Automatic annotation (TrEMBL):
Annotated protein name in UniProt: Gibberellin regulated protein
InterPro entries from the UniProt entry: GASA
A Pfam family hit: GASA
Signal peptide coordinates: 1-22
Family: Belongs to the GASA family.
Organism: Arabidopsis thaliana x Arabidopsis arenosa
Keywords: Gibberellin signaling pathway, Signal
Taxonomic lineage of the native organism: Eukaryota, Viridiplantae, Streptophyta, Embryophyta, Tracheophyta
Ranges in a coiled coil: none
């Protein structure tokens, strides 16, 4: 009986893991090219607004985020994936700093 319960628990965990990975893959397919290939120069200037819209989607400071993201994207032609972090995907975006030394790009 115990083996049956363990088998059921393990099976349901495996099933739920595969189900959640399927959702992840589905959302990645909708992302712009930067999220699949990345790197400097991976975007065309006309693709920057869409990539920045995704990058700034989770912030409460949307207007300044979009302004600086678009400014950085037009210089670097890339935007890191996700809404936060992953700046190593785009060194130009990561290395552009303010006078005070803080990051310029969101």
């Amino acid at each position: 009986m115990m083996k049956l319960i363990v088998f059921f628990v393990v099976s349901s965990l495996l099933f739920s893991t595969q189900f959640s990975n399927g959702e992840e893959l589905e959302s990645t397919a909708e992302a712009p090219a930067i999220h699949k290939t990345g790197g400097e120069g991976s975007l065309r200037p006309e693709e920057c607004p869409k990539a920045c819209e995704i990058r700034c989607s989770a912030t409460s400071h949307k207007k300044p985020c979009l302004f600086y993201c678009n400014k950085c994207c037009s210089k670097c032609l890339c935007v890191p994936s996700g809404t936060y972090g992953h700046k190593e995907e785009c060194p130009c975006y990561d290395n552009w700093r303010t006078k005070e030394g803080g990051p310029k790009c969101p």
